[in-house]
Specification:
two-stranded antiparallel ribbon, 343 residues, alpha/beta, Transp_IS110-like_N, single chain, 7 strands, Nucleotidyltransferase, domain 5
Length: 343
């Protein structure tokens, strides 16, 4: 007498479908609150085997709250589920919940690992810092662009240099100053808030032995190390270190059908931001010439650059970095600059 449940979650309401022995035994809708949903599960499905819902904005909260309430929650890959749910003739929330319940009963789904609240808090800190820096850059570009319209070219410079140059050029131009100075003040305030988040990020890096270990790699700074550690959480989440490269979308896609068989570009699945950080770190490794940057990884990347070009070599080094960083977290050993690297 096992029951299988599907939740189609939206911001306001959640559609519920409960199946048993291949048949739907109950269907309904309630507010999107894990506590209310847990009560409904206990009432209508006391022998619940699996409760399935898709990834989404509320999935982290739902998963941890339902699990704490004793509900056997399973978060599944939305893209995988949608390929099946789209076969339904009529697209409704109730029908989607039915489809998810059928997936739960058949076991035909791809479960995803839901990050802990601590990991999500760290990722939120990194994301907020990155957002403020992006807004700061946009504001400075806007100021430069507006002033160019009036024939005023702001010299190159950042921070206080940029602020001083703008104020100096606005001297005697009261009409334009009334427009630009509020933008400049907003730019300064955003930079201050970004600096505050920077300090929080560096404090978190100093308190973690794992992050300090990752920062022994040339080109890997606090932001990359913190982001990687928060994404991986526990090295045991991956069976092998090589799996991390595929998880981050840094491995090539393959298409094979009949006589056709070829590899394409990298899949670009997973965390876009972390993948970009690893690519930046790989670029630093390949281009920085300081003696402290010499390593077997750099030598391997430079050989690839001669054969494949810079961009492909940088992607390969980024993938190798992801593998090496996972191995370091597993073993607790610092980066070995003299170790050779194989493809």
């Amino acid at each position: 007498m096992k029951q299988y449940i599907g939740f189609d979650v939206s911001l306001k309401d959640t559609a519920i479908s409960i199946r048993q022995d291949g048949k739907r035994i109950w269907r309904g809708k309630c507010a999107s609150d894990p506590q209310i949903l847990a009560q409904i599960v206990r009432k209508h499905a006391p022998h619940a085997e699996r409760v399935v819902f898709e990834t989404g904005p509320l999935s982290t909260w739902f998963y941890h709250a339902l699990t704490a309430a004793g509900v056997p929650a399973v978060c599944i890959e939305a893209r995988h589920a949608q390929k099946i749910l789209n076969e339904t003739l009529n697209k409704t929330d109730a029908n989607d919940a039915d489809g998810l319940a059928q997936l739960a009963e058949a076991g035909f789904y791809k479960a995803v690992r839901v990050k802990s609240f601590d990991a999500m808090l760290t990722r939120t800190l990194v994301g907020a810092r990155n957002l403020l820096l992006t807004i700061s850059t946009q504001l400075s570009n806007q100021i430069r662009g507006v002033m160019k319209t009036f024939g005023i070219i702001v010299p190159k410079g950042t921070g206080r240099v940029f602020d001083g140059n703008v104020r100096e050029l606005l001297d005697g131009r009261d009409g334009l100053a009334q427009i630009i100075l509020p933008l400049l003040e907003a730019w300064r305030d955003i930079r201050k808030r970004a600096a505050e988040l920077d300090r929080q990020l560096l404090a978190a890096a100093r308190q973690s032995q794992a992050i300090k270990l990752l920062m022994t790699i040339p080109g890997v700074g606090a932001v990359t190390a913190v982001s990687y550690a928060a994404a991986i959480e526990d090295p045991a989440n991956f069976k092998t270190s090589r799996a991390v490269g595929a998880w981050l979308g840094l491995t090539t896609r393959r298409y094979q059908s009949g006589e056709v068989d070829y590899d394409g570009h990298i899949s670009r699945r997973g965390d876009n931001y972390l993948r970009g950080l690893l690519y930046e770190a790989a670029t630093v490794i390949l281009t920085r010439t300081h003696a402290s940057n010499q390593s077997g990884l750099k030598d391997w990347g430079l050989r690839l650059r001669e054969r494949l070009g810079f961009k492909r070599a940088a992607v390969a080094v980024a993938r190798k970095l992801a593998v090496i960083m996972h191995t370091m977290l597993n073993t607790g050993e610092a980066f070995n600059t003299s170790a050779g690297v194989t493809a």
